[in-house]
Design a protein that fits this description.
3 helices, 17 strands, elongated
């Protein structure tokens, strides 16, 4: 495996546009060529070698892996559009990690910033900590949400998880903020903890599965049934679940699955 380790030479004071840090850009190049990769620190163009020391621990195989050591929270757009290979961040990651990702894998040992996996169409992202707002969402001013792949956040996530999501799977182990699944068209969001308000607002399709507390359901959703289990990927999750259909204001046919035993306030929906 081609294994490139990037070690920061200094602390970054301003954001660094690092969308050129993708495995495809490093494969087949010498360390000197890799360190000539163009980045932007604020509004100033720099070479990667000005910010990082690159080390090669390759073993001769064709697969390519990038390991970012230290704090990468100021780096934006790492892994943008990547189609193969692997990226490991041994700390916290910045915003727009894996934007437009088509394949390969990204693993973050710490937390990740907002717009994790935005516009993603393939591949797998796993964050061992928490993530910011807009996980798997469209970018501002766009209705092009993620179309595939899998995002796993072991901790909590912020607002608008899966905004304009068109396909794929998002798993959040902890709690999420407001508007999970807003404008959702298809795909599945699994929330292991509690959810903030307005779940599924304006959704037209897809599923949001909530294992914790949900508070109130928007009045534009109707209760459809109580189900004993739900399948997410290869997992069969035992319930029972309240199943809500909507958003009826949008003529939507999405579904919200809410764990019954954690939401006694929803008993009013029982026959």
């Amino acid at each position: 495996m081609v294994r490139i380790i990037l070690k920061p030479r200094r602390e970054f004071k301003v954001p660094v546009e690092a969308s050129s840090i993708v495995p495809e850009n490093f494969c087949g190049k010498t360390l000197e060529q890799i360190e000539e990769t163009r980045l932007w620190e604020g509004n100033e163009p720099i070479e990667l070698g000005d910010a990082f020391k690159a080390e090669d621990e390759s073993d001769g195989s064709a697969d390519c892996s990038i390991i970012l050591e230290g704090d990468a929270v100021k780096l934006r757009g790492v892994g943008k559009g990547m189609a193969s290979g692997a990226i490991t961040v041994k700390g916290d990651a910045g915003m727009r990690l894996g934007e437009g990702m088509r394949g390969g894998s990204i693993n973050v040992k710490g937390d990740a910033g907002p717009w994790l996996g935005a516009r993603m169409s393939g591949g797998r992202i796993e964050v061992e900590g928490c993530a910011g707002d807009y996980v798997g969402s469209a970018l501002r001013g766009s209705t092009r949400g993620r179309r595939g792949g899998e995002i796993i956040v072991r901790g909590d996530a912020g607002n608008e998880v899966g905004c304009w999501m068109r396909n794929g799977l998002i798993r959040v182990g902890g709690d999420v903020g407001q508007f999970a699944g807003v404008h959702m068209l298809d795909g599945t969001i699994l929330i292991g903890g509690d959810s903030g308000g307005r779940v599924g607002a304006s959704m037209k399709g897809g599923r949001v599965v909530i294992l914790g507390e949900v508070g109130k359901i928007l009045p534009s959703f109707s209760v459809e049934e109580i189900r004993n289990f739900v399948r997410v990927g290869e997992d069969r999750i035992a319930g029972p679940f309240y199943v809500f259909a909507g958003d009826l204001v949008e003529g939507g046919d999405g579904r919200i699955y809410v764990m019954k035993e954690r939401n006694s306030g929803l008993k009013i929906y029982e026959p």
